[in-house]
Amino acid sequence: MTITAIDTIRPLFVTGLRNAHALENEALSIMNRQIERLENYPDMLARLREHRQETEIQQERLERILEQLGEDHSSFKDAAASVMGSMAALGHAVAGDEVLKNTFADVAFESYEIASYTSLITMAKAGGFNAAVPLLEETLREEMAMAAWLGENVPNVTERYIALEDSGGRGKR
């Protein structure tokens, strides 16, 4: 690889890592709000709690990669993403079908994360940042597992929502 290509890839990779760290910060804000409000969906609550722990570890992985590159995450991006996550979660809180809207949004968010980590892995390989690849691949597997779980559970959440609504209008959360 030429020096020019490396000079191009490194800043792109660092920016992508910082963006991913902020994205995980946003994910934590969203999950924390959802966890606070879930009352009638124990399977979803348990899986969100588990994924929250995974997300915290994912942030640590990103910090480790950035540190290896002599860089740091962006506190500004993290703060902005956290606010955006809180606002997104609050937007669904007023909806009568909050749990459904959250589930749909979570599926979309996981897809976004999958694309982000796939891109970061591509950049890491292209830039020769080989130590980052296994860490990013581990996170990608976790995001893919969460996306699969959410996708598989849309029918279960929907059925539970219908049943709770039918028995007194408690399906919202």
Automatic annotation (TrEMBL):
InterPro entries membership: DUF892_YciF-like (IPR010287), Ferritin-like (IPR012347), Ferritin-like_SF (IPR009078), YciF (IPR047114)
| Keyword vocabulary terms for this entry | Coiled coil
Where would one find coiled-coil regions in this protein?
A: 45-72
Q: What is the designated name of this protein?
A: Ferritin-like metal-binding protein YciE
Q: Which domain of life is it from?
A: Bacteria
What Gene3D superfamilies would the database entry show?
1.20.1260.10
